[in-house]
Amino acid sequence: MEEERRKDHQALLNPGEENELEVFGYQTQKLRRVLFLVTSVLTCGVLPLLFYWKPQWRVWAYCSPCSLQEADTVLLRTTDEFQRYMRKKVICLYLSTLKIPISKNSEEPLVADCHSVINKAVLKPELKLRCIQVQKIRYVWNNSEKKFQKVGLLEDSNSCYDIHHTFGLGLTTEEQEIRRLVCGPNAIEVEIQPIWKLLVKQVLNPFYVFQVFTLTLWLCQGYIEYSVAIIILSVLSIALSVYDLRQQSVKLHNLVEDHNRVQVKITVKGKGLQELESRLLVPGDVLILPGKLSLPCDAVLIDGSCVVNEGMLTGESIPVTKTPLPHVENTTAWKSHSLEDYRKHVLFCGTEVIQVKPSGQGPVRAVVLQTGYNTAKGDLVRSILYPRPLNFKLYNDAFKFIVSLAFLGVMGFFYALGVFLYHGASPRDTMAMALLLLTVAVPPVLPAALTTGIVYAQRRLKKKRIFCISPQRINMCGQINLVCFDKTGTLTEDGLDLWGTVPTADNCFQEVHSFTSGKALPWGPQCAAMASCHSLILLDGTIQGDPLDLKMFEGTAWIIEDCNADYCKLGISDSNVIIKPGPKASQSPVEAIIVLRQFPFSSSLQRMSVVAQLVGEDQLHVYMKGAPEMLAQFCRPETVPKNFPKELRNYTVQGFRVIALAHKVLKMEKLSEVESLTREHVESELTFLGLLIMENRLKKETKPVLKELSEARIRTVMITGDNLQTAITVAKNSEMIPRGSQVILVEANEPEEFAPASVTWQLMENQENGPGKNETYINIGNSSVPVEEKESCYHFAMSGKSYQVILQHFSSLLPKILVNGTIFARMSPGQKSSLVEEFQKLNYYVGMCGDGANDCGALKMAHAGISLSEQEASVASPFTSKTANIECVPHLIKEGRAALVSSFGVFKYLTMYGIIQFIGTSLLYWQLQLFGNYQYLMQDVAITLMVCLTMSATHAYPKLAPYRPSGQLISPPLLLSVVLNTCFNCIVQVCAFLLLKQQPWYCEVYRYSKCFLDSQSNFSTNVSLSKNWTGNGALLPGSVLSFESTTLWPITTINCITTAFIFSKGKPFRKPIYTNYIFSFLLASALGLTIFLQFSDFPDIYRGMEFVPTVTSWRVSVLVAALTQFCVAFFVEDAILQNRALWLLIKKELGIYSKSQYRIWQRKLAKDPSWPPTNRTDYSGDGRNGFYINQGYESSEQIPKEKLNLGGQTTEQHFWTRL
């Protein structure tokens, strides 16, 4: 019963998705609410403030748990490691408000779509539905399934048949009205936040609330100048933050506002065409695409085809052809029917339609799929409005550090209470001074310190044409130890050069036709395939499209023409592509080729095909191009040359990009039947035509950058959609795989009827065949990798297919492969994202560099995604480099390291500054004294503030060090640095405090003012003091004017200056301190000013600074003590705490090793004599538990049934044997 109640009380929202949330139901209790209001008044607003910071407390305070069906308030919690809470009110919508007749009969559906959640959400006869709005998305309560479900989209369970027949004719006016009410407007509305609201949000930040409390206290104590300075700085800081947030809000609003005001045409059932504003569109509407149009929603194409520019989504302005959803009469969900390739039918919101191609049966039509924030563009805007928080240890450690300082402040608070009460001070004064000491321990600028390095780094990156939309990730870049690279367009040149074609005849490869010879490509099926099988379009007289397609087409010397009257007479649509021989093309018997149907290329399918007609012929032809391994599967085996694998390898090992071509004749009676052809029918029983060889040169920057990363001990990995052999060759040529290293091919196969899944390990070797010529071949001998070179001499290479099999069936084997995996070829976009995630699970800090096309998911998944895009800020990744080569990667890592070290330095400095002041103030409190107003002002504004603003301006060191800076604040070197510096400060200040009292001229000024004035003649000064001279911050007469404060102030001030110098470490992550001219000048000036103030004998200075004159010898002693402490602290910090070799030795002696998963695996594998496996095959009984069998010794008949079916077991067993 309890379990049932708990199940009703909570549920999951968006299960399995990135934005998964737990939702809990609550009912508001009126009595509790009244009690809350009374308590809020009694606590002077402190309770509402706490509830503002912690929304879950507010819900728990005046609501009681209930089932979600009865809830009027819901509490949402993220399922990630941050466990953030949100509170939302349940809203009720009433369909009775619509001015249309609605049936109250529970048997009659409200909308025609049987899959729609609307039918299950509306309660009859009340015509009411309950919903919540979470991060701009609306969810309605499904009364049947007892859960909240997203609205504003067509359900994925719809089949191709449902979409064509349920929505093909459009929605009725009544259904449109219902959907508009339930789904909301089709608008991506970004509210321009009012200034007052932004101001309130900033002021209610816990940091500023603490600052208000601190300033109020200081003003009450008379620290007017310093408080005013901090108030001015805080107001400036808040004003700049509000201005920045307001500007961002305005920019984002302007970016999406035009999207909401597009005029569109739709088909209304029974009424024909209707023109309306795009914000009125609803899922299920049929959209008419007249020509060029910026899409206001996501839609699935049902009739005709079109060409769109998806640059907004991918960062690549290459035209993409979209084809209509096929007419098939099955019940398979439409996305599943198209597998990973469903995107070829979808027009995404925000993308530009640049050309439409009607099918001949009417205009190009598309069914609205998703509206508003459910769309691709909406999702993008939501990711900007609600960014995923970063799980970076630095920020967690910073919070712990601040808590520790606050604890120190609390100890000081009780110490001050004890001292002042003991001396009989009034309760009011006692409380004021105790609170003052509490605020001294936690510097108000501490939380902001972590961002200063980031601001400077971002500015320097911008100068290097690297733009950033997520500045917090810059610090993360300092921790990167693995970088994944796409190949084409990233490591190699974007454009490919044609090298030659290898035609086939009689099941044999023929002589190579070289394009460098200058001879035109002879006419034949291969020439026809190259001329027609592409997605190029003619736009404003210019051929546009994929660079690969463009190069291939240029190699034929044919041209593209618009459909003219002559061809239209043949019954050809004016949207069909017409290709004709150009003046430089070889003699051809064909006047032109007309492309009737196109099945576009997709990364997941690795192929594309077209249905074309040669003018003058009745029969149709199918031409296909794609990855050779993939294309060979669709050809008749007898047409594929027997030496196909060898010939393919011959070119791929030389680094060529190889594309295969195929063809078949299609017998059809009517041209109109072309539109109803399925891809499966077209792409079958083809004749293999040959290979197209393209040269893919390395960019000149690739090799030096990879060498630089390698020297810095940063792993580099290649993730590409290209052929495995080509990828290996490129990796060797670029020295991603160093010379002399072994490459082990990992090939995994899916389980078959009588055989479990298998993984084969094949060792590739280099052998010299003649002078300067290396040929790579697969060695099937019985060799293994030498044990002494095991650490780094071998690299695993695998295809996307093998990766998928290993992920599913050999999950426990995957980490072992990834630790030394370097080449991942033929990877789909989804597999790229998955691989990056798997690397992150091994505790790598992963950078991903790609061109933004097929890498969007991986770029977003990585800790630092860098898109090589011409756009200033590609939406695909946090970082965008406008320089299209990988030089941006080391730049980013250098700046990340510099920013990280700067953040640590400023943080350590501010911590020490708080502790230095805390110790000095605590010593003065012992005698009911404190520092003067201008003494604080000098330390806080002239030194600390200036240090915070300029300390992080030191540039990154030009060379990458072979190790990373520490990513943890709570680490032995840093903690020891703070603890030892605290000890040195404490010793010097306490010794000075005690030795002062031993001096013959010392007296307690505020108690013995007459004695003090009488003894002035002994001092080497002519300062005269009036008896009533006391500080404006005095608690008691003379509490500021004292020998103690005059002695401790120069010590604490010089300590602040020297600490800033000590913590401003330069090499190996930043340039030397003297290159930061402003910071160096400020430190030197502050030190000079402090010494001048200490040794000057000017009455006005003494009066202003509230000093007491002392003998010169004492002042010299104080200066010597402060400088001695600096020398000791500098030596300890530089020679011991920052001595990496010493720490490595200590770790080795104590047996302390890295706890990172990849390090643990490296240590395990180094001790495993059977690793890496070579030239053997391992089998899996069950992929989930990593059970391996070597079938060289154990046949499938001999394997016990319980071994082959281990799904219920959790123990993992390994049987490693050699073939």
From TrEMBL:
<feature type="transmembrane region" description="Helical">
    <location>
        <begin position="906"/>
        <end position="928"/>
    </location>
</feature>
<keyword id="KW-1133">Transmembrane helix</keyword>
<keyword id="KW-0547">Nucleotide-binding</keyword>
<dbReference type="InterPro" id="IPR059000">
    <property type="entry name" value="ATPase_P-type_domA"/>
</dbReference>
<keyword id="KW-0472">Membrane</keyword>
<feature type="transmembrane region" description="Helical">
    <location>
        <begin position="398"/>
        <end position="422"/>
    </location>
</feature>
<dbReference type="InterPro" id="IPR036412">
    <property type="entry name" value="HAD-like_sf"/>
</dbReference>
<keyword id="KW-0067">ATP-binding</keyword>
<dbReference type="InterPro" id="IPR023298">
    <property type="entry name" value="ATPase_P-typ_TM_dom_sf"/>
</dbReference>
<feature type="transmembrane region" description="Helical">
    <location>
        <begin position="223"/>
        <end position="243"/>
    </location>
</feature>
<protein>
    <recommendedName>
        <fullName>Cation-transporting ATPase</fullName>
        <ecNumber>7.2.2.-</ecNumber>
    </recommendedName>
</protein>
<keyword id="KW-0812">Transmembrane</keyword>
<keyword id="KW-1278">Translocase</keyword>
<feature type="domain" description="P5B-type ATPase N-terminal">
    <location>
        <begin position="17"/>
        <end position="142"/>
    </location>
</feature>
<dbReference type="InterPro" id="IPR001757">
    <property type="entry name" value="P_typ_ATPase"/>
</dbReference>
<feature type="transmembrane region" description="Helical">
    <location>
        <begin position="34"/>
        <end position="53"/>
    </location>
</feature>
<feature type="domain" description="P-type ATPase A">
    <location>
        <begin position="265"/>
        <end position="384"/>
    </location>
</feature>
<dbReference type="Pfam" id="PF12409">
    <property type="entry name" value="P5-ATPase"/>
</dbReference>
<feature type="transmembrane region" description="Helical">
    <location>
        <begin position="974"/>
        <end position="996"/>
    </location>
</feature>
<keyword id="KW-0460">Magnesium</keyword>
<dbReference type="InterPro" id="IPR044492">
    <property type="entry name" value="P_typ_ATPase_HD_dom"/>
</dbReference>
<dbReference type="Pfam" id="PF00690">
    <property type="entry name" value="Cation_ATPase_N"/>
</dbReference>
<dbReference type="Pfam" id="PF00122">
    <property type="entry name" value="E1-E2_ATPase"/>
</dbReference>
<feature type="transmembrane region" description="Helical">
    <location>
        <begin position="434"/>
        <end position="457"/>
    </location>
</feature>
<keyword id="KW-0479">Metal-binding</keyword>
<dbReference type="InterPro" id="IPR023214">
    <property type="entry name" value="HAD_sf"/>
</dbReference>
<dbReference type="InterPro" id="IPR018303">
    <property type="entry name" value="ATPase_P-typ_P_site"/>
</dbReference>
<feature type="domain" description="Cation-transporting P-type ATPase N-terminal">
    <location>
        <begin position="168"/>
        <end position="213"/>
    </location>
</feature>
<dbReference type="InterPro" id="IPR047821">
    <property type="entry name" value="P5B-type_ATPase"/>
</dbReference>
<dbReference type="InterPro" id="IPR004014">
    <property type="entry name" value="ATPase_P-typ_cation-transptr_N"/>
</dbReference>
<feature type="transmembrane region" description="Helical">
    <location>
        <begin position="1076"/>
        <end position="1096"/>
    </location>
</feature>
<comment type="similarity">
    <text>Belongs to the cation transport ATPase (P-type) (TC 3.A.3) family. Type V subfamily.</text>
</comment>
<dbReference type="InterPro" id="IPR047819">
    <property type="entry name" value="P5A-ATPase_N"/>
</dbReference>
<dbReference type="InterPro" id="IPR023299">
    <property type="entry name" value="ATPase_P-typ_cyto_dom_N"/>
</dbReference>
<dbReference type="InterPro" id="IPR006544">
    <property type="entry name" value="P-type_TPase_V"/>
</dbReference>
<dbReference type="Pfam" id="PF13246">
    <property type="entry name" value="Cation_ATPase"/>
</dbReference>
<dbReference type="InterPro" id="IPR008250">
    <property type="entry name" value="ATPase_P-typ_transduc_dom_A_sf"/>
</dbReference>
<feature type="transmembrane region" description="Helical">
    <location>
        <begin position="1116"/>
        <end position="1137"/>
    </location>
</feature>
